[in-house]
Design goal:
- With 379 residues, the chain is of the alpha/beta class.
- It starts with a strand and ends in a 7-residue tail after the last helix.
- 48% of the residues lie in helices and 13% in strands.
- The radius of gyration is 26 Å and the shape is elongated.
- It has two domains: 4-167, 3-Layer(aba) Sandwich (Rossmann fold), CATH 3.40.50; 177-372, P-loop containing nucleotide triphosphate hydrolases (Rossmann fold, 3-Layer(aba) Sandwich).
Length: 379
């Protein structure tokens, strides 16, 4: 039997970090049910309620969640036939915050709590205010107030989310990772570039699932496989984003699958067409300006040129900014790779630093280009 029937955790969760998770895990271990309430006013850019709710629901599916802003609160009030109310500002007095939380529990959830879990000095006063509102005792359970178990704060994470990524669950950190997409026709260096890019910046890359499935099927794909390929590609992006570092390198996108669906079958599933609208933070198009290499699976140089022309037209039609990567960098890279074992450590480090600097310049160019066109990342 657990110590409490219903526990309460309240916070901004901007973003949800391991300190918050310790708090909710502790409440879950001691309570039959846990209510988690999240609000902040003003909101923080990129940390909107829908995103916070998704994090919390993914990490704590058994908890009762109430993730609010003023619009969500108004909708909840209308649904229950209540007069609309507004959330208190972050700077509002403790008494106002406590009255609001008590009202949210009783009016919107029809619940009261037996314990409130915090890592803050205000916890005892919070528990007394809730007890007065509910008409029964509410205990304050203090969890790691000195931040010895998890030395973190939301302010510190917001100031350096990538430097503090080890304090975020992958599902949370993945939302802060930018996606770089590499497109190109057959034998354009696209897959090699995507893998090399990830390696150079110490991150991970998403391989082309369509190629994997094509090989598994012996080169025989069906129309139904097209949607499966696009969905799996996106799912793998989402899965790997939380394990990337700043940037996730994506070898192709659903736009490529759309091309092959048209090329092979002359039609496209509506769901695939929607997935092909997926945006990326940077798009690199590998040009077919070096000799075509036939590996036994490719259709030929003319097909490569037609595919490249289609990308140019489609990206322009969709108003997607991109950077063209020209030339064949791979012979030199291969020679460097073959000799890497003979290089001394300082020289290897200088080469890595040079590659990283070049990539940094490219990404800065991409960021400037994409910022002029608005945010292109979507989830």
């Amino acid at each position: 039997m657990k110590a409490f029937r219903t526990g309460l955790v309240v916070g901004k969760f901007c973003p949800l970090h391991q300190g918050h998770e310790l708090l909710i895990d502790t409440a879950s271990a001691q309570c039959d049910d846990v209510i988690v309430i999240s609000y902040t006013k003003p909101e923080f850019a990129g940390l909107e309620p829908a995103r916070r709710e998704r994090w919390l629901r993914t990490r704590f599916p058994a908890a009762t969640l109430l993730v609010l802003d003023d619009a969500r609160l108004a909708a909840r009030c209308r649904a229950r036939g209540l007069a609309p109310r507004r959330l208190p500002d972050n700077a509002a007095a403790d008494e106002e915050q406590r009255r609001c939380v008590a009202w949210l529990c009783t009016a919107l959830l029809g619940r009261s709590v037996d314990a409130v879990f915090t890592s803050e000095d205000y916890g005892d006063g919070f528990a007394r205010a809730l007890a007065a509102a509910f008409g029964h005792p509410v205990r304050h359970v203090s969890v790691d107030p000195a931040r010895r178990i998890v030395p973190v704060s939301g302010t510190a994470v917001r100031a350096d989310v990538h430097g503090k990524r080890q304090l975020l669950s992958p599902v949370v950190y993945g939302d802060f990772v930018q996606r770089a997409c590499f497109l190109g026709g057959e034998s354009s260096g696209k897959s090699s570039m995507a893998a090399a890019f990830a390696q150079a910046i110490g991150s991970v890359h998403v391989p082309e699932y369509g190629r994997t499935l094509w090989e598994e099927r012996g080169g025989r794909l069906t129309f139904e496989d097209m949607l499966r390929i696009a969905r799996t590609q996106v799912a793998q992006e989402r899965q790997l984003a939380g394990h990337a570092v700043r940037w996730l390198s994506c070898d192709t996108s659903p736009l490529t699958t759309l091309f092959y669906s048209l090329e092979l079958f002359g039609r496209v599933e509506p769901a695939l067409a929607r997935l092909a609208q997926r945006r990326y933070d940077a798009v690199f198009l590998c040009a077919p300006d070096f000799p075509f290499v036939q590996d036994g699976t490719r259709q030929g140089g003319a097909f490569r040129l037609r595919q490249h022309a289609w990308y140019l037209e489609e990206l322009a039609r969709r108003r997607v900014p991109f950077i063209t990567l020209s030339g064949d960098p791979w012979p030199g890279l291969q020679r460097c790779s073959e000799r890497s074992d003979s290089l001394n450590a300082p020289l290897r480090q200088r080469i890595i630093q040079l590659i990283t600097k070049i990539i940094s310049v490219i990404l800065s160019m991409a960021a400037a280009l994409f910022s002029r066109c608005g945010s292109l990342s979507n989830e």
